[in-house]
Design a protein that fits this description.
2 strands; two-stranded antiparallel ribbon; about 60% helix; about 0% strand; about 325 residues; mainly alpha
Amino acid sequence: RQTNFYLAQGRGLRRMVALFDSIEDLVVENDRRYDDDSNEDTTLDQDRLQLGYSTLVRTLPWFLKKATDLEHDDYMRMLKMLRQGADGARGDDTSKLKTLVSDWVNMALKPTPPVESDDKHCRGFINDACGRLLCPAELDWNSPVVRAGIRDRSEGYIVTDLSFPAFLYEKYTANPDNLEEGIFKGKILLQAYKAVFTSPSSAKDVECDGDGTDIIENNRRAKKAFSTIKVKKHVRFALSSVTSWRSVDGDFDYIQFWHTIVDFFERPPGREAQRRVNRLLDWWTRKVFGRNHRNELSDTAKANMSVNALARQRAQCDDAAFDSP
């Protein structure tokens, strides 16, 4: 029963805490800082691990007490179970999106022949539809020269994590003069997020705002969830021809890709960039969860609604009965 508890608790860690770093590495970095009195400057990687540890203890509030109470062997067994739960959930998400992404690509781009849902060998850059979505933002997939160069991995056309794929952009098209415009608004991204974090059926309708509670005002964790757990890596993997998970796909490093995305949200260069990030997160929260308009109702509108109107009518009937002879 305890093992099942740890496995279940671990399932959210790849989504909420760290996509690639192991729980053990997060704990080791925190312990190192606790024991280190030198106050030496830390590296960016060390800061990322520490941030992951801080997120871990917020996500699993029972973790610190358990870590203190358990014997060493039981503690290490707990970490192992949490890691297995985390990796299992990542595998489930990847498997789920393998089929869903092919359906979305077929509906949006209508390729001939359509992308097969159960065969990844026909995806990647050899497939025109998948290639368009994977194409670096600075290149034009419509150009035969670009398509041939990418497929041949010619100089100037090698696809690495230093390029943002087109699927990240609104309408899958980037503005070379303003690469921030429309980024992280790709429809397939929104579909993937809703499929993983709400339900696959909710991913069918992403054109309008969501219809849930006012997450923007009442649950700031929704923003944090979007900025630290990404389906972007899952979408790229689903579009690629790689059949099993790996951190490097040819010249594309998924870990660096992940770090680039996290840094975009968490390390903006200035106040204006931070405001743009906040607006983008608000857009995502509204698209996924919706906005509650209850507080926008006027007193007059509320008074005329049936619950208040009925209460008023019942009171009037009682008053009338009391006043009658």
